[in-house]
Amino acid sequence: MATTLALLLPACGVSPQVHVAGRVQPRAARAEDLIQRADVPHDHQATGTVHASCDRDDRDCSELELLRVMREAAAEAGATAFIAPSCGDEQGALAKRSLRCRATMARRRSLGALDGAPVDVAQERRWGVRVGGRAVQVTVRPTGSKRAARFQGVVERVWSAEESGAALGTVSVECLERCQRADAERALGQGAAELGADAVAEVRCHERSAGRWECTADAATKKQR
Known about the structure:
Low-confidence stretches: 1-14
CATH topology of the largest domain: Translation Initiation Factor IF3
Number of helices: 2
Number of domains: 2
Shape: globular
């Protein structure tokens, strides 16, 4: 089940869009009590993902504010842990810049079985590829239902989680030598295809050093029209 929440923040005048994808459970913790980890703890199970975005032209658009509303949305969805939050800038149409953040939600196993279909969290996988003659490291972290890897076909880019279908996991790539941003983005598609995805959303890239690009994205199915 996917839920989109539009939260109004009268204190600062920013209205970020918050999107929760996964299984909503009864609330079990306050936002400030969610534990934060780089990976899902052994005594927790993943329940889905939470995303937020705001317009960079808004004075109070910031990572701090987005992460705050994401934690509140995660707590409202029944999470007790806030996993691997990440943020990045994205260039949209008409040179419009937005800030986007994402995180995985998890819930303590001791609270009982989850309602709805299970979320199958597989182990992270990492391998090297060559794109445009450059060495790129690809890391995938499945967080959704298992699908067979795709070896043919195009992985389409969509701008946000709301435009994609079922979430399958996250993909991150790192150029191990000087490369073009386009090379890193092509490697994202290869990683997403390994998860069985035919779409990537929330693509975020930054140039760590001269010509050394790093990118992350969400792998998903295409949304049914």
